[in-house]
Amino acid sequence: LNESRYQKAPAASGGKNEYAFVKVRYKLPGQSTSKLIEQAVPAVSIPLTQADANTRLALAAASYAQALRGGEYNGKL
């Protein structure tokens, strides 16, 4: 495994403006080499009114599912 990106010891690269850093490695069927995708998840947010329709739909579905399970994390909707 790579060293922790968000540990307390000084890191080689930033991370202060990121929620996470995602690495995904995959290999297509029949291929011998894998591909690596690396993407930082920026620590920014936008108001829900400015989110695209797909994001609002995903949030509505997740909130509804959580409400069906008691809504412990939904807050005031």
How does the SSE layout of this entry go?
Layout: E1 18-26, E2 35-42, H1 53-68
Antiparallel strand pairs: 1-2
Plain-language structure description:
It holds the Pfam family YfbK_C. InterPro entries: YfbK_C. Helices cover about 20% and strands about 20% of the residues. It is an alpha+beta fold and about 80 residues long. It has two domains: about 1-45, no CATH class; about 45-75. The chain is extended, with a radius of gyration of 18 Å. It starts with 17 loop residues before the first strand and ends in a 9-residue tail after the last helix.
Largest sheet: 2 strands, antiparallel
How many structural domains in the coordinates? 2
E-strand count: 2
Q: Which class of secondary structure composition applies to the elements?
A: alpha+beta
| Strand numbers in spatial order across the main sheet | 1-2
Key traits:
alpha+beta; 2 domains; two-stranded antiparallel ribbon; about 20% helix; DUF3520 domain-containing protein; YfbK_C
Quick structural summary:
The chain is an alpha+beta fold and 77 residues long. It has one helix and two strands.
